[in-house]
Amino acid sequence: IVNGVANAEASLRINPDVPLGQRPLGIRGEDVDLGDGKGGVKISTVLPESPLGKAGVQTNEIILSLNGAPLPSARPMAALWKRVQAAGRSELAFGVMRGSDVRTVQASWK
Question: In sequence order, what DSSP letters do the residues of the chain get, joined into one string?
Fold first, then answer.
């Protein structure tokens, strides 16, 4: 299901220490092309006190979707950040993959 994750190049990195918008993600990650027009964000760092850290997201996991909508293959990290900022609610569902297991985690910006 994942093409080339082990050799994925860091085409876009976001620094979790820089608050972007009203909802900082608190992660560092790399864009990953999963094929068929779908992308993901492979987590290299997650701040434990961030909403995603509190939700249980861990390093080396891949965020696949937000509120059920898959991330695009082109710049998925940027798309994820934009979608989080544009969301009209304070609790969001992230589709997360570790190995072949996919789960949904809820992150809150309350």
Answer: --SSSTT---S----TTS--SSS---EEEEEEEEETTEEEEEEEEE-TTSHHHHTT--TT-EEEEETTEEEESSSHHHHHHHHHHH-SSSEEEEEEEETTEEEEEEEE--
